[in-house]
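Risk register update: the risk that structure generation would not scale has been downgraded. Supporting records follow, first protein first.
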Amino acid sequence: MRWLVAGVVILTNVATAYAQVRSVKLFTSRAFGYFVGDIVRSEVDVVVDKDVSLLPASVPQSGPLNSWLELIASRVEESSANNTRLYRLYFDYQNFYPALDSRALEIPGFTLSFISGGSTVSAQVPAWSFLISSLREVLPAPRASGADYMQPDASPQGIDLRRNRIATFAFLVACLVALGFLARHLVWWPFGARANRPFTAAARRVRALFNTSEDEAAYREALLILHRAVDATVGHAVFAEDLPDLLGRTPSFSPLQDQFSAFFRSSRRTFFADDFAVATADFTPAELSRLCERLAAIERAAR
């Protein structure tokens, strides 16, 4: 009775172990057409239960396998799906067998080990063979010299690059033309000194000024820069009382009426009341810079 119970337990454990490794599949690139020095690749897919893990030490490592075969690379990829785990193993072998005729060579199989809980499960990867061909005849025709058996190197063939050069030159010219239009639109060098875009020049100067400091001296200088830009755009000095006339003559500036009003108020408080704190509280350096940028954008769109 004891032997019967022991047999049932052993069979149960064996069935459980086999259930943990669900499948082992071997894939090869091709079975023929190899020569000495070629790389022979294979792929092994092993599907196991989700709680089964591969022991990395059981994966064959790079190195010579025999006198003519060397494993030069191996890597493992792992993925999970539907309560199973897939281990995909890639192997690159290099063949050094100097065959004198076509013959089959065998890549040896190996055993992978997996662990589940406290038990170890094995999966056998089978051996497989490929056909190798010789580089020359077994008995070639006699030649006067051993060097006569060597074939001359193939002469390099020139590639006509004229069309590519023309296309490249045309593309370069188009890029330079586009860059020129962009530089003119954004008033970059050498277009930065144009007098017909005072707000664009003012925005650049105010931006550079506030990047350095936003103290009272910088704020005063920024106000003066914008005043001069407004005067240059209109053609004469513009004061707060002239704001309705300015907006009437340049309707594109009408959406900025509130910002213009704040600008003139802050200018008056800064230069006539000497009240920097109140001026910047009403119209901050950031708001002054944004007003310059918006005026520059309107100016670029109009011209």
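Supporting record for the second protein:
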Amino acid sequence: MNRRYEGFMETILNYIVRKISSRNPVHSKKLKSNLANADDAYFSRADLFLKKYTDVLQCQNKTIDYAIDCYLQMLADVNYESVQFIQTGTYSSKSFAEVNKRVYENPEVMDYYMHGLLLSQFLWTHHYKILLFFERVIGEYSDSISNYLEVGGGHGLYISEAMKIVSDKARYSLVDISQRSVELSKMMIGDGKVSFFLTDVFDHHPDTEYDFITMGEVLEHVEDPVRLLKKIRSLLREDGRVFITAPTNAPAIDHIYLFRNADEIRSVVSSAGFRIMDELCVYSEDVTEEIAEKYKVSMMFAGILAK
């Protein structure tokens, strides 16, 4: 354990890792390895983010221990889905209707799933690296953004970061199909400038086009990602930009469309009429590309798209 980590012994992050370690020693090795390679900026940001999150939990009469329970339940789901994936080579969920009923419209499942995913933002290295990439690319286009849309806002982190970087005069909208996601995003964002739409993006018909659209980890949740991207394209200003992320070989309770490699994601993007202006690929494990390809290690793809 490096000294940077030791210097944060009293933080919420350290408490989370210690509690997870006591209940899942195998997984704790991965978490501690991630922290051993983290820099000071990571620890500072994680601390601020988790302090804000604990305030949200308190408003819901919940504690950080509740969030840890949610994370471990989400991890158990991932492990189960991974076994099925290894055996069959496919994701267990086949249709959006199935996932919508079993996950998105199920408050009990969505509660632990969203809180578990929120903790993963700073516990999983590849999630943090993608966030840094997002901040860099949106910074490059910030002067031209006056109308921002986020599709599938999750826990609201990305739109919160966008609001720190883009002009105060910009308008912000968030579309999500899950009521629990919208509720959590509202609490995490804590800003009246965001317009929330509890709806399917295909039913979202604004009276104006967007300069910048963010859609993180949504393509794998639909049966036809090309159709989804074409819808996004119809909402985008001619010279606007879209930021997307999508994982490969990432079984989960609500993942439907299997991307086996980055080229399959690039092909879907191209088929929808987009060009990739910049991209980043990050594996979920610290292994070589050869090992990752051989053993189908999950990879996160992030890209900035233009018409």
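The longest strand covers residues 236-248. On this basis the risk owner (M.S.) recommends closing the item.
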